[in-house]
Design brief:
single chain, 143 residues, alpha+beta, HIT family, subunit A, five-stranded antiparallel beta sheet, 3 helices, 5 strands
Length: 143
């Protein structure tokens, strides 16, 4: 008798706070709904994974590759001063990696982005152009 592992699903808080832009081999790529910062999330599509060390070596290597691919694309699109990469998960237990383009002129610089200013709604035209530019550079299919 085989025991089936639970199916993967995106944590409801992440679904509420993001725009889905596509899937890489391991991770779902999402844009945080906060126009204060160009801010992406990578969420490995593996059930019940809370920490990076919960991934096996192959998945961990794939996640590292995807972080690099997304980070390079974000840096190219935004021409940011610094790229922040973090996997905290103190509020949402599902493993997710933040990839945030930072500028010396952004609202929180040089502090972390969390809780510094209220989220700012994206302009629909601007976020659409941002997503299209990222998809091209990350090699995600367009809608």
């Amino acid at each position: 008798m085989s025991i089936l592992s639970p199916a993967w699903s995106l944590h409801p808080q992440l679904a509420k706070d993001t725009i889905d832009i596509g899937d890489l081999p391991l991770s779902r790529v999402l844009v945080i709904k906060d126009a204060n910062y160009p801010w992406l999330l990578l969420v490995p599509r593996r059930p019940e994974v809370a920490d990076i060390i919960d991934l096996d070596e192959v998945a961990l290597a794939q996640l590292t590759t995807e972080i690099a691919r997304v980070g390079r694309a974000l840096k190219e699109v935004t021409r940011c001063d610094k790229l922040n990469v973090a996997a905290l998960g103190n509020v949402v237990p599902q493993l997710h990696v933040h990839v945030i383009a930072r500028r010396k002129t952004d609202a929180a610089w040089p502090r972390p982005v969390w809780g510094h200013v209220p989220p700012l709604d994206h302009d629909p035209t601007e976020v659409d152009a941002f997503i299209k530019a990222l998809r091209r550079r990350i090699w995600l299919a367009s809608d």
